[in-house]
Amino acid sequence: MTKKKSLIKNYLYNLSYQILVLIIPLITTPYLSRVLGAENIGIYSYTLSIATYFVLFGSLGIAMYGQREIAYLQDKEEERSKAFFEILIIRAITLGISLIIFYCSFVLNGQYAIYYKILTLEIIASALDISWFFQGMEEFKKTVTRNIIIKLISVISIFLFVKSSEDLIIYFIIYVLSNLLGNMSLWLYLPKYIKKEYAKKLNIIKHLRPTISLFIPQIAIQVYTVLDKTMIGYILKDMTEVGNYEQSQKIIKFSLTIVTSMGTVIIPRIANTYANNDKEEIKKYLERTFNIAWFLGIPIMFGIMAISYKFVPWFLGNDFEKSKILLIVGAPLIMAIGLNNVSGMQYLIPTKQQNIFTKSVVIGAILNFGINLIFIPIFKSIGAIVASVIAETIILIVQLIYIRKEIPLNIVYKNCSKYILSGIIMLCITVWFGNLLNANMITTVLQIIVGAVSYFVILIILKDKLIYELLKKFKEKIIRT
Are the C-beta atoms of 171 and 36 separated by less than 8 Å? Predict the structure, then answer.
């Protein structure tokens, strides 16, 4: 199989899982929103945000670093095996320390101690996570298959065991056990790629500095993702605000996976291409992924804005009225994250320019934290989402400033004007159409169909190159069948 076919196949594997990730919340989120309510969703989100910090600190930057290092050593069995054992040992030690601190700080006492006790399994699950190895090997079929099975089991468990607001503990247990069992299952595939006899004369120390350099930006990233929830809960003492923020962010992130799904498979490919010093090939990959980010991100961003007022009432229920405006204000995150995912995760990290990546996210994190302190007391959860949009946009701008000498900026915004124009027209048509109907699932489905058709028709009229390529491939497939 050629490299190109392999990349496409891995993208389709990853995209299939991301589509499942999108579909499952369409089933579980409305159910959990009504069964648990905004306050319990807020408690879940707030306590999980605390546990996430300890997973983060315990993991250092090992997952990102490990994926990159394994990608460099794909064809070198002995070096690959040694690197795996060295990275795994570091991860086990640091997460072990993190688990002890978490247990002493939150599990032994506090308002939500019972939930924190369950979340100790989340830290243990992280220690057993070796998905970074298989991503580095570009073996996405294994991780995707594992994830799909575990996701389906967890969904079935939610409907079987979570029946009322009293079942929040059960929901926590289902969440952590699905992660734990999913991570454990990957170990069954490991003997094919790793040989125990190479677990000798290991040099763990050499990995500390690069993992720490990647750890810093990961901390910064959490400031404008997880910390938003923590700050809303801590400053406002209102779990309903946290719950509304959580559900609106969840919907945005579900949509964002369509835009960023290429990133997961392109990172090891660019890392491998960089190792072979093929700069022109890297530019081709980036031009393609930037174009895809615009092509997919624009209609999703404007689409969320267009359907929010008709979508939230039937999807989330009456407890989440504020999520309507949160979705509209937060929708630009789709484009900001979609684009800086390409410039940062898909280019700077694989090409060993994590220092630039670190600078950009640290700047964004500091800005986000400062805006949160000012905006959350005044605008509550809306202030937090505004801060996130500003932070992600600044991160993108900083990254583009740094890479402009290596990657021409016309690669970034090529053809974007067509997508923006098509998106704005689509937004107007979809809002107008939605205003003619009541707020229900059928209305949302019809809005999505009308929006998608109008977007593609406008791009065809504008003679967009990418849309014509897709139509050509579709036509060829029809003819073959």
Answer: yes
Residue 7: CB atoms within 10 Å: 18
Q: What's the Cα-to-Cα distance from 431 to each of 296, 347, 425, 427, rounded to whole Å?
A: 19, 37, 10, 6
* Residue-wise pLDDT tens digits, 93-105: 989 999 999 999 9
Pair of tokens at residue 123: 């830290």
For 402-419, the pLDDT digits (tens) are: 988 888 888 888 778 999
Which single residue is written with the structure tokens 């306590």? 47
Angle of helix 62-72 versus helix 77-102 axis, rounded to 10: 180
Q: Distance between CA 82 and CA 429 in Å, rounded?
A: 57
Mean per-residue pLDDT for 369-397? Answer: 94
> What pLDDT score does 411 carry?
82
Joined together, the tokens standing for residue 433 give 């159409």
d(CA 38, CA 339): 32
d(C-alpha 335, C-alpha 397), whole Å: 13
Q: Can you state the percent helix, strand and coil of the chain, rounding each to 5? A: 85, 0, 15
SS3 439: coil
Closest CA to 33 of 247, 194, 339, 205: 247
Cα–Cα distance for residue pair 52/93, rounded to 1 Å: 17
pLDDT tens digits along 437-450: 998 999 999 999 99
- Tell me if residue 440 falls in helix, strand or coil: coil
- Cβ(65)–Cβ(351) below 8 Å: no
Q: Over range 69-95, report the average pLDDT.
A: 84
87: which DSSP letter? H
DSSP H or E segment with residue 162: none
Question: The pTM is what?
Answer: 0.75
CB 396 within 8 A of CB 353: no
Q: Kindly compute the dihedral angle of the four CA atoms of residues 309, 311, 312, 317, in this order, to the nearest 10 degrees.
A: 130
Summarize pLDDT for 98-136 with one digit per residue, the tens: 999 999 999 987 788 999 999 999 999 988 888 888 878
